[in-house]
Amino acid sequence: MLGLDLPASIERAAATPGVTLVPADVTAEAPVREALAQLGDAPLRMAVSCAGIAPSARILGRSGPHDLELFHTVLKVNLLGTFNVLRLAAEVIARQEPDGNGQRGVVVNTASIAAFEAQVGQVAYAASKAGVAGMTVTAARDLAQYGIRVVTIAPGIVDTPMMAGLTDEIRAGLSASVPFPHRLAQPDEFARLVTMVVEHDYLNGETIRMDGALRMLPR
User: Fold this and answer.
1) Which of 50, 93, 178, 218 is packed most tightly, with the most Cβ within 10 A?
2) What is the mean pLDDT of residues 132-161?
3) Residue 164 above 80 pLDDT?
4) Of 105, 125, 126, which is closest to residue 115 (Cα–Cα)?
5) Largest distance between two CA atoms of the chain
């Protein structure tokens, strides 16, 4: 199994048995192709995209209009990066032998509940994640002829390393905002949902919310 990320992130990552970490910028074609080539003759049946950044900026703030380059960067990482992995992974998966149902593999993308009700200052993030959710059905239809499913997961508030830097007070407030269960989601719950999607052959073209029934307020 390959794990693609920027070199700085890989340097900080803990070793995971069975996972080979490969430095690669998912927004560029060549590094992703080179990473996939490392699989050699090993079959590729699944690809999961989780890359994402979430800077905060309002469309019109005290210092003026939203920085255009920042908006471009968020879309490049979150949307273009996801699409780049989707298209290149699909090319490899399409070469595999189909199973008895004609299925060759599945691609799981990551959106966010911000795709549907983002908060103030999340316009770039919301646009990028809405794009990921929006291409789910058409991607599933495009790749159906190759026996490749496409499913998107839209998480709510997940206890990732990004959240670890928040104070206990803020974390408690975020947990209380979730209708039930009153806590942050755990990364392993996301992983379990990915596993379920992979194992459930009839899930296709769908965006699944994993948010404890949370609907984000404006602030």
Assistant:
1) 93
2) 96
3) no
4) 126
5) 59
60 burial via Cβ count (<10 Å: 0-12, 13-18, 19+): exposed
**Which letter does DSSP use for residue 192 in this model?**
H
Cα separation, 77 vs 167, in Å, equals 27
Determine whether 146 is an active site residue. no
End-to-end CA distance of the chain: 39
**Structural tokens at position 162:** 């990004």
Q: Tokens 């380059």 appear where?
A: 69
Q: How many whole angstroms separate alpha carbon 24 and alpha carbon 191?
A: 22
Could you tell me whether strands 64-65 and 60-61 are parallel, antiparallel, or unpaired per DSSP bridges?
Answer: antiparallel
User: Does the pTM exceed 0.85?
Assistant: yes
Q: Which of 125, 135, 148, 211 is catalytic?
A: 125
- How many Å apart are CA 109 and CA 86, to the nearest integer? 8
